[in-house]
Batch of 4 targets.
Target 1
Amino acid sequence: MNNAIDTLQTLTVDLGDRSYPIYIGSGLLDQPQLLTPHIPGRQVLVVSNETVAPLYLERILKSLAGFQVATVILPDGEQYKTLATVDTIYTALLEHRFDRSCTLVALGGGVVGDITGFAAATYQRGVHFIQIPTTLLAQVDSSVGGKTGVNHPLGKNMIGAFHQPRCVLADTETLSTLDDRQLSAGVAEVIKYGLIRDAEFFGWLEQHIPELLARDPQQLTYAIERSCRNKAEVVVADERESGQRALLNLGHTFGHAIEAAMGYGAWLHGEAVGTGMLMAADLSHRLGWIGDIDLTRIRTITGLARLPVHTPPELDANEFLKWMAVDKKVQAGQLRLVLLTDIGGSIISDNYDAEKLRKTLDTFHREAQAR
Ligand code: NAD
Ligand code: GLY
């Protein structure tokens, strides 16, 4: 047995006849025996982008020897997560006469994964789909659980579909080429699992974030595996987000407002989520739901992960509220927020004092302007 297989971790997202494995380990791109059993037909479209393809596409194509393979290379960036980009994938599928038995493989970060998954969900009313995530954020979050979609100029991730992949192949070696800012953005989503439902993991992260940022392979693999385990449990309990899956959106309502208001791509998604979680914690503290020590721990870990602790100075409370109103958690015009009751405890609620929300937004604005 080689090293890659020795270090292989396999989790299952248990969704009955749509169950699928998450493979986590080093060197998995060169293990066709993990990938090819999940491809039912002969036609495969690999979708990647102009940054990731030069690094890793060759290795995937080698693993797919014997299949009828086509590729689409997308421009890189959140600003291309649009219906227009999805259309270029449909065009390639039609030009190659791909039929309903085809499989789309997403090779890249969350942007490539979300776009490709949406194309797979909608091409001929749904074809097979595989995720090969290459960012930390995608390996711990976006590749698992079947949320796919694109942005609209008026709101983030507003067009989409649930469509589960047939497998997720997370090769931790790909993280060696990721820049430090992207790595920190991924750590934000890792911290999220600790905050919403896994206090013990949060405690572990307080000790080990420096090792994650230093790309210690063992600690990274542990953090990815534990994050995916948390995500898989939530997805199995509430696949289509009628309840607890919304907790995975801690910090996202604030974060999506930052991303959309600043123009997609200016702030990384994980950065916006990191700051957004701090804002959610601040509001939870004002409501008396978490104490001083918990708020300090959350502030400290955000800084330790090298995530921004200040909002963009140009966003005042009114601007925030305008963007926050465009959120999938809005029901009957009422903004619901994921808030903390503890480290490791969270709820979704519209039962909060709106004045306290304004106070949080005003305080962040004032502090950002004072810098
Ligand atoms: P991303 O896909 O933009 O990737 C970040 C950058 O890293 C890009 O420039 C990319 O080209 C580059 N890159 C990717 N892999 C690399 C590698 N191995 N080496 C070097 N560079 C590499 O961003 P992301 O943080 O991966 O994903 C963010 C997106 O994911 C957002 O659109 C967000 O909405 C979405 N998301 C979706 C879900 C979901 O459940 N579907 C969950 C969380 C986030
Ligand atoms: N990232 C949020 C979810 O998958 O539900």
Note: The mean pLDDT is 95.
Target 2
Amino acid sequence: MSDYQYDLIVIGGGSGGVRAARVAAIGGARVALAEQSRLGGTCVNVGCVPKKFFSYAAHFAEGFEQSRGYGFQSEHHFDWPTLRDNTASEIERLNGIYQSLLDKAGVELLPWHARIEGPHEVSVNGKRLTTERILIAVGGKPRQLDFDGASKMVSSNEMFSLDTLPKRLVVYGGGYIAVEFASILNGLGVDTTLVYRGELFLKGFDQELREFLRDEISAKGVKLHFNANIVGIEESEGVHQVSLDDGSTLEAELVLSAVGRDPNFDGLGLDSVDVALDESGFIEVDDAYRTSTPSILALGDVIDTPQLTPVAIAEAIRMVAIHFEQRRPAPINYEAVATAVFCSPNAATVGLTEEQARQRYDGLRIYVSSFRPLMHTLAKDDARCFMKLIVDDASDRVVGVHVAGADAGELVQGLAIGVQAGITKQQYDATIGIHPTSAEEIVTMREVTRR
Ligand code: NDP
């Protein structure tokens, strides 16, 4: 045992930090975890979990409409405080579960802000603590913009506790958070406009999937305003005048800024140690999550890997294996990380986009299908589902799967196992579908759409 008071002090009680602390402590390490706010981090408190509840709520609204074609005729009234308060109670319950998981694992919780004082020293609540290793798992915070009136925008953090829903909403950004909130609030009856600086939102996703989502999301009523930047916001009597650089003006009771998230280094003391950052501001780590000071480790949203809860958790487990269990698990295959955007319709994807695959392989077979799922026929709406497989012609391997439609994430999670394992198109073809489902389409796509 070392002379330090702890083997590991984790700073940050989000998905990555809590998992690292628990697994290390269960293995016998002396672990403390500092968290100044609620346990669970962004994901539990102001991210994935409450967002998913809101997304379910928005889908109910759609479902009630669709149910008319199935013979239901009742009227439904949406009560925002019920959704907001039930969500808050559930989060509180989850905070408690996180606390008891840490307790059971034997992790000492330090419910204060922590500052790094040196390679083996952390100050917490006026005390200096020594530790063999420090783990930075502080996650991110909403990126702030700087134009006249920018401070009048709210971030996604505030969206979960609004007193009332606005009549009109402007969402600024074209990434996950912008597209998800635009769909959710539109679904809940808010007049929603999404403003994005580029040609087409969801940069980095498959181009054809993005175009499909543009058409479906705008058909559901979200106004999409691309190729524009917000340059000023003025507020008068609760109404925001939002000025865009294309000369137009929008009016809304609420403006949501969703322009990305940056690592949350506030007051962390990075100036007192040698922890190198890359040019985007993320902490540089080696393949064992060591920063330029080897006793200081970092993972999750503070390093330049996908900002996703399951990624932070996988990194935490791997970090503990390397530093506390003397094991060296294979590196995480970031290319086969499946991800979903909980817009309406849901979109989910794993592997390469067609654009990436064209760069990498000489020949491809692309299979695309867009169809009206059975459920929508009686519902009498025109919503469609999109499925796309990208196959490397030489090896027959499926290198990319892109889906938009109801519960796309549920389908793609299963398909991701195959992509991760190197599944071939022939193996898809040999698989018998489940009828009648939308998902059976994925194993019955036989005609090459293009090469
Ligand atoms: P994203 O990085 O996904 O998107 C940021 C958006 O803001 C992009 O459209 C970007 O434009 C735009 N933008 C960036 N800087 C500016 C600027 N200065 N002015 C105007 N627009 C700007 O970030 P989010 O905030 O949406 O989400 C943060 C992360 O959280 C995501 O990357 C994701 O990893 C994670 N997340 C995951 C979810 C999920 O798994 N379902 C849900 C929500 C978040 P451009 O594209 O042109 O660069």
Note: Residues 345-443 form a domain with the Enolase-like; domain 1 fold (CATH 3.30.390.30).
Target 3
Amino acid sequence: MKFFLLLSFIGFCWAQYYPQTHCRGTSIVHLFEWRWVDIAKECERYLGPKGFGGVQVSPPNENIVVNDPPRPWWERYQPISYKICTRSGNEDEFRDMVKRCNNVGVCIYVDAVINHMCGTGNRAGTSSTCGTYYNANDRDFPGVPYSGWDFNDGKCNGEIYNYNDANEVRNCRLSGLLDLALEKDYVRGKVADYMNHLIDMGVAGFRLDAAKHMWPGDIKVILDKLHNLNTQWFPEGSRPFIFQEVIDLGGEAITSSEYFGNGRVTEFKYGAKLGTVIRKWSGEKMAYLQNWGEGWGFVPTDRALVFVDNHDNQRGHGAGGASILTFWDARMYKMAVGFMLAHPYGFTRVMSSYRWERNIQNGQDLNDWIGPPNDNGVTKEVTINPDTTCGNGWVCEHRWRQIRNMVAFRNVVGDQPFSNWWDNGSNQVAFGRGNKGFIVFNNDDWALLTTLQTGLPAGTYCDVISGDKIDGNCTGIKVYVENDGTAQFSISNCAEDPFIAIHVESKL
Ligand code: QV4
Ligand code: CA
């Protein structure tokens, strides 16, 4: 009995770093700007069956309606109240989505915007997604309610300029957004009430937006007020999974390690560096990835939330710069996402985007504000084409065969160790995950033809990048593993996808 108690204690006190086992899957997908009704359907028809562990949803709380520019995606990062009422849907639709996704083992993680309310530049009115009145000039948000007492004006009356001053970064306004006084019990109570309302519906955890701009101690007090997860789906005593948005590329007063006690942190170095390597910029090459992870100066693997791109840096917001790979660079993007999902480092998040008409002038996209596909501001439905891709302008990277199959690869290999590394000293590399999976990349400008130790049992395997294993057949490349575990790999540098991945469940 004592042993079980110890295990359950470890389980629960580490819960903020790992999703609940009910969330069957080792990756989550950010369905950016999707409507709740569409997410519910996607959980049942795709994410559950394909082994996605969860969905990060866009902020579900009422936000300001911005008309200039017309309905930008970023209006959802300017809260007006904590009513579940946005372009993605109302509370009933949200509740139904959580239930239907949980019922197929796909957990819901809410993007919690709790550092601030709307920008100071907005005047008063009811231009909000639920019609709630607000007066930014008077710091008046009757929908919560918040008043002047609840903001940091007394501590700091301006914007954040100096990222080397930790007080300024926490107490001043990020891009002019009214900064909440999170050291006040009243404000902490309102934020916790909002998050508990979501937890009681069945939400399994949170992305904490702009966490760098909140004191770690204030976050901790709020997290300690959170309820245990809903026992309709989660074991008694389960705690929410937490990942904090902290952009730390080094050189600032604030470091991500300050936030480790609260949960995981977003590791922005990951996507920036991986993009540089796959693009072969600055002399980087894939052979250098042998010590990928903490060896590259990233946070410890059990504190890292990793991704190739996110909703900010895929359009030049936030951090990462020009090296960030996105769906616009599809061939390289699939290699980067494939590498991320095969490698053991960190907890992985896949981006799922919508297309917009870029207008790049001097390296900046003047259309970086464009919101989701819509009809006069009403977000469009996610339609599914006969070939399983998405229509209506939704990119659905998570449905691309190469990415969907690598999400499955990560589930199959579990916690098997990084093994059997090989490289040609340039951009041809390979590595395994114990005796469960193996992946080979050719990012050089010449063919790869070599025999490698895979660590896998002998047999014929279907490559899950070029195809699928369907009814006992491979629709793509076959790989023959000999009794000694070796296999010959041939990858043209002109291949549509110059990488091959096999695992024990793609074996014939
Ligand atoms: C403008 C002026 C300000 C002025 C203000 C007055 O720039 O100087 O004081 O008006 O109101 C939008 C506009 C921005 C405008 C602001 C407030 O782009 O020009 O300020 O609204 O009206 C997203 C977008 C921002 C957007 C914001 C709010 O990226 O452009 O600002 O939503 O709508 C740092 C942080 C990191 C942050 C990242 C973007 O450390 O936490 O910047 N990332 C998260 C989210 C991100 C979001 C926010 C934080 C804010 O991922 O999407 O910003 O919630 O690195
Ligand atoms: Ca703040």
Note: The chain has a mean pLDDT of 96.
Target 4
Amino acid sequence: MNARVERSMQVAPLLAVREVSVTFGGIVALNGVSFELHKSQILGLIGPNGAGKTTLFNCLSRLYQPSRGDILLDGDSILTRPAHRIAEIGIGRTFQNVALFAELSVRDNVRVGAHARSRSDIISDSLRLPWARRGEARLNGKVDEILDYLELGDVAEVTVAGLPFGTQKRVELARALAAEPKILLLDEPAGGLNHEEVVSLGALIRKIRDDLGVTVLLVEHHMGLVMSIADHVVALNFGKKLAEGPPAAVQSNPEVIKAYLGSKEP
Ligand code: ATP
């Protein structure tokens, strides 16, 4: 186990999902799901189609309001926060199909992420007040660092729409990291990538965790990616937690195998 994760397991969890339920009309999408995520852990959330992964992800990013239960970040409920404020409390996310500003450059997209945590406001910025200028210089430096770190320096001025999908995914990661999240939520990051791209994405997610100590929760269908990078796996089925534990143990859990066989997924 990663030494940083081992240390963090001895203190209170960073994220606690407590008995969360979500219903849509008569459909119970999540039924009393609980688990914890410790600082610097990489948690993989798996399950066959319709298991409730996206619903849970949407609760964590505040797009859905649970009908029961609570979600605590550093001990405080996130359920009172609107979706547009989650970056401020330290939750960063990427989207399944990439949600960047296609007509803006890579640099400007990452700047948008950095602004989510910047203290400057529109009046100070437009009056070019001294603290706004200092804030701006700091923000530019941070954006440059992140672009270098994710090897996006060469395409910094390129419009996002013209980049390959794999690179766009890296820009999304850069944008999320620019807001300095405590926890990074990744929605099917391997979707649409070829084998080599998935392998390098996995290495990159591990590197981000190892270098920056960022905690990661990923919802992923690509079992190879989950098994190679997650420290802990939570398996859902029909809205309930079916199993959790180290990746190999969850993968060989008979209930999990049965759920996947039943759904005809790999
Ligand atoms: P997949 O892997 O196919 O994306 P999933 O594990 O993400 O599946 P969810 O999308 O969370 O599963 O769906 C859980 C259940 O809730 C399913 O029965 C689904 O049909 C239902 N559901 C999800 N979102 C809605 C919604 N907005 N309105 C009604 N039912 C929904």
Note: Residues 76 and 120 are 26 Å apart (CA to CA).
